[in-house]
Amino acid sequence: IHILNMYTNELISGLWVGDTAILNSKQFMKDNQIDIILNCTQIFDFPDLDNLQKIRLPFSNDKNSDTDLMLLRQNKDKILSFINDNIDSKNILIVCYDGKSISPFIVFLYIAEYSKIDKKSIYNIMLTKDSNLSLWFDLSLFYNY
Predict the structure, then answer these.
(1) Does residue 5 carry a pLDDT above 80?
(2) What is the pTM (predicted TM-score) of this model?
């Protein structure tokens, strides 16, 4: 969905990804009953809404950052189990700078961790949702397959 240069995509039912512009849309939050925002930026503010759980994952805007890779590897289990614990009862929005790299990659990891889908197929399946999604890091950095 593109609205005024805002990018969002519901990759799994109740699990959205979006770019930083979506953080300014209280209407989007209300219309899609977003309960939790995982903000994968260092500098962009959360929307000023009550009843919204706000979690910052301070990734940089550098697509090849070793620091970001280390941060994600250290916190992967915590992030993925948090999503898994909440996905059945809450709508989750994962925001990154462009909405098409870090955010979907976390969704890729979530699918790799909690589904029986072949890890090599996940990226291609997600490309059917949006052909511009990028695989931020190779899944093989997180899983042996």
Answers:
(1) no
(2) 0.92
